[in-house]
Amino acid sequence: MLIVLGLETPRLDVDNIINKIEKLGCTPHEIPGVSKLAIGITGPTDTLNEEDFNLMPSVQEVVRITKKYKLVSRQMKFDDTLINVGENVIGGKELFICAGPCSVESRDQIFEIAGILKELGIKYLRAGAYKPRSSPYAFQGLKEKGLEYLDEVKKVFGLKIVTEVLNSVSLPAVAEVADILQIGARNMQNYSLIVEAGQYQKPILLKRGMSATVEDLLLSAEYILAQNNYNVILCERGIRTFETSTRNTLDLNAVPVIKKNSHLPIIVDPSHGVGIWDKVPAMAMASIAAGADGLILEVHHKPSEALSDGYQSLTPEQFKLLLNKLKELAPVVGREIKL
Ligand code: PEP
Ligand code: MN
Predict the structure, then answer these.
(1) Does one domain contain both 107 and 55?
(2) Which one of 31, 210, 213, 229 has the largest count of C-beta atoms within 10 Å of its C-beta?
(3) Domain for residue 56, yes or no?
(4) Site to substitute for ligand 1 among 207, 210, 234, 271, most atoms within 8 A of C-beta
């Protein structure tokens, strides 16, 4: 349920509504908007009646939220959520462009790639220190050493770090270095990890599970918002289908569907979505045309030597060409790329 109030509502009226919600055994969430103030209600809302609030001072409207997810829904919050990462904003006019290797492989490797990306004007570096690999025999990441290198790179180049957290044991160390905590496709429904990660109040990049519906993704995000962390960036990264000519099927339908149903930013990972480097630029362009708020892309200075996902990684030259095309496309869809 949602209670809509004017922006100038006296604090006393807001507090009275909040107290009443708590008294009725539910949880209030204050949601400031551009033109209205809203108080979202979660919990056993089936027991509530619109009349409980309709006649209270300052209440303009009482709306029942019909979706399973509540706080992430656009019914609950109409305005797009903007996420601040230092001086940068995600979800506004400026597109979020994050690039880097799949994994941190060595100090030299991450310094080399970070230097190239910095030179191109990129602000966000992606790289995994802990890697969730399908095979137990594949490279599992440099772990603590990888985090150390990421921390160094962050200090030297001033790049914001996007890196994945795999479990609650390594969460404190990962959160120390990460500016944005990545929850990977395989952990999208690991609700205890999501809740713990959300408690750090850092932005969470929540990737769609490979067999998850859009509703599953939004319900996972709801776990984070339910503890008052609204800093969630959703990510479409391809789903499993019967198609075998690409690694996954990039479900770009998800972009407009999510834009309609949620106020959270939605970005796309065409690298994992396609899995083959030469198809990545086309799907990156298509993602922005579809309305995505940004991209996360795998870029490696020597893809043929990469310890993970080399086949889907762009070289810096290919990435630069893509950036030039994206810069032309962005204004066509009302966006901008600042490098
Ligand atoms: C990754 O970003 O390298 C990764 C493992 O992604 P996903 O969780 O989407 O497979
Ligand atoms: Mn990868």
Answers:
(1) no
(2) 31
(3) yes
(4) 207
Q: Are residues 30 and 137 in the same domain?
A: no
Whether residue 73 is contained in a domain is answered as: no
Q: Are 272 and 159 part of one and the same domain?
A: yes
> How far, in Å, from the CA of 104 to the mean position of ligand 2?
11
Cβ neighbours of residue 64 closer than 8 Å, sequence gap 6 or more = 1, 2, 45, 50
7: domain CATH number is 3.30.70.1140
Q: Which of 102, 133, 274, 295 to mutate to test the pocket of ligand 1 (most atoms within 8 A of CB)?
A: 102
pLDDT tens-digit series, residues 296-310: 999 999 999 999 999
211 and 146 within one domain: yes
Give residues with Cβ within 8 angstroms of 125, minimum separation 6. Answer: 98, 99, 100, 113, 114, 117, 150, 153, 154, 157, 159, 160, 161, 162
pLDDT digits (tens, 9 = 90+) for 278-332: 999 999 999 999 999 999 999 999 999 999 999 999 999 999 999 999 999 999 9
pLDDT, tens digit, for every residue of 48-105? 999 999 999 999 999 999 899 999 999 999 999 999 999 999 999 999 999 999 999 9
List the domain range (segments joined by +) for residue 20. Answer: 2-63
Q: What is the pLDDT of residues 213-266, one digit of tens each?
A: 999 999 999 999 999 899 999 999 999 999 999 999 999 999 999 999 999 999
